[in-house]
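so my prof wants the structure for this chain in the C-alpha cells format not the other one, which i didnt know existed until like an hour ago. anyway here's the sequence
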Amino acid sequence: MLSQKARYALRALFVLGEHEGNEPIMIADIAEQAKVPRKFLEQILLDMKRRGIVHSQRGKFGGYTLGRDPDDIDFAEVIRVIDGPLALSPCASRTAYRRCDDCEDETTCAIRKVLLAVRDATAEILESRTLAQAIMDEKTAKKRKRRN
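here's what i got, hopefully its the right format
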C-alpha cells in the first residue's frame, strides 16, 4: 500500500512541476498548496534532494525546484525513494533482494513466482508514468470538470 508520506511527496512534486518559471518555491508555499504538514514535508524534500529529484536553494529567495524535467521523474522512483522497494517480499525485490528465512527452494517457490509477476507488473506501470503525464492528466480532468 502506498504510504501517506509517498502521497505527500507526489503532491509536493505536482506543485513544483506546475510552477511556472525557474525561481524556487518556499517550503511553506509548497506545504500549503500540496496540503502537506510542513515539518513532514521537510524530511520528504530532503530525501528527494539526496536523489536529485529536487534541488534546494538557501537564502532569502530560497526554496525548492525540480531537479530534473518532469518527463524524467517517474512514479516508481519517487515511491522507491520514500517507501523503499516496490516488491511485496524481499525475495522478489530488484533493489533490496534478500532470501526469505523460511524458504526451502527459491527456484520452485510458487509464492515467489507470483510476487515476482506482481512486482514486474507494478514496476512496468509506475516506471512508465511520469510527473509530466500526471500533471497533464490532472489539468485535463480539471478542465473537463469546469465545463460540466
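also thought this was worth mentioning. The first strand starts at residue 54 and ends at 57.
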